[in-house]
């Protein structure tokens, strides 16, 4: 008697990611595949057919990723991305604060209109879950510490204002149409693949390239730095938690700790066994009323709803990031000798 064939394994659930080619998006794509999902990953259309950081993922991971070139500013692109997905993770955004002073219209187009297009596509397609990405910059300088999700919104840059606009649209679609959206508000994510417009890769990249005189902006602001793998896990947590626990809500993701830019730079010098001469550059300092002086997260709501908590402390995350930038192949992708905005 012939033994019955084993039942086929269930097909992995399909999820979609906007901004998948970027720093956090590429780490999230890896995490989603590791969790058993198939990922339809949107990278912004470009004439080089570049897939950004997705090109560095392992062949095994990419075997579960369908990369499409598109643009969240185009409704048709978003509709095609969302179709058939069980969940959508919306990370596509313009994020560099200094450039938002120069090109604010482009931030509204991407961060507000792009978010509107994602919300409309999810609404039309009946997608079961949308995870929308916010930013701690929407809070502005902390009025109370640690910052809970009920802290007032005070946008101090065009970037922050554009992200707050997307947040408000997400809230309104849940209230008006029952769109199953949950908003994740990560604090300052760092780690391998981050661009040089952020302070940690700026410092590590300059040291790895042989510089000992480090040029930065204001050294006084404090930040709550969250390692990128913990950020990716926070996205998975709100993307897969029971709807009644997360839908229609906003969640901070952070460690609850803070460190000033100056102290952080000294710590990086210690971990890289290098004496640094740190200098402030006026060009890198935000306008007087635009600098956010203090950010530190209260992530207790996220822990209570999903059980998430950080798995890496600051020194562990910095160690992994230093290893990444010390690799000549990785460092060669960056321009460490210029001010990257």
UniProtKB/TrEMBL annotation:
Q: Which residues form the NAD(P)-binding domain?
A: 17-318
Spell out where the chain crosses the membrane. Answer: none
Q: Which domain of life is it from?
A: Bacteria
InterPro entries according to UniProt:
Arna-like_SDR_e, NAD(P)-bd_dom, NAD(P)-bd_dom_sf, Sc_DH/Rdtase_CS
- Residues of the signal sequence? none
Pfam families tied to this protein: GDP_Man_Dehyd (PF16363)
Report what the protein is called: NAD-dependent 4,6-dehydratase LegB
Q: Which organism is it from?
A: Streptomyces enissocaesilis
Q: What is the lineage of its organism?
A: Bacteria, Bacillati, Actinomycetota, Actinomycetes, Kitasatosporales
């Amino acid at each position: 008697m012939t033994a019955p064939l084993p039942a086929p394994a269930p097909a992995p659930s399909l999820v979609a990611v906007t901004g998948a080619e970027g720093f956090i998006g590429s780490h999230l794509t890896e995490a989603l595949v590791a969790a058993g999902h198939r990922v339809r990953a949107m990278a912004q259309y470009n004439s080089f057919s570049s897939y950004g950081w997705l090109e560095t993922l392992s062949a095994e991971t990419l075997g579960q990723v369908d990369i499409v070139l598109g643009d969240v500013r185009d409704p048709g692109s978003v509709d095609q991305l969302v179709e058939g997905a069980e969940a959508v993770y919306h990370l596509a955004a313009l994020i560099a604060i200094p450039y938002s002073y120069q090109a604010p219209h482009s931030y509204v187009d991407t961060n507000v209109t792009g978010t509107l297009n994602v919300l409309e596509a999810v609404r039309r397609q009946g997608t079961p879950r949308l995870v929308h990405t916010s930013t701690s910059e929407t809070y502005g300088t902390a009025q109370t510490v640690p910052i809970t999700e009920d802290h007032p919104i005070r946008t101090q840059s065009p970037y922050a204002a554009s992200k707050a606009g997307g947040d408000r649209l997400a809230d309104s679609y849940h209230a008006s149409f029952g769109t199953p959206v949950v908003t994740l508000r990560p604090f300052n994510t760092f780690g391998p693949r981050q661009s040089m417009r952020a302070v940690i890769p700026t410092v590590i990249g300059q040291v790895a390239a042989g510089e000992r005189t480090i040029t930065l902006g204001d050294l006084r602001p404090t930040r709550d730095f969250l390692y990128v793998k913990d950020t990716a896990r926070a996205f998975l947590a709100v993307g897969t938690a029971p709807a009644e626990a997360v839908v229609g809500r906003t969640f901070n993701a952070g460690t609850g700790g803070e460190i000033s830019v100056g102290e952080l730079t000294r710590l990086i010098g210690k971990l890289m066994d290098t004496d640094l001469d740190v200098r402030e550059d006026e060009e890198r300092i935000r306008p007087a009323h635009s600098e956010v002086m203090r950010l530190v997260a209260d992530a207790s709501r996220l822990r209570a709803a999903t059980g998430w908590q950080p798995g890496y402390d600051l020194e562990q995350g910095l160690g992994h990031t230093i290893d990444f930038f010390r690799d000549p192949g990785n460092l060669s992708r960056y321009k460490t000798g210029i001010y990257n905005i």
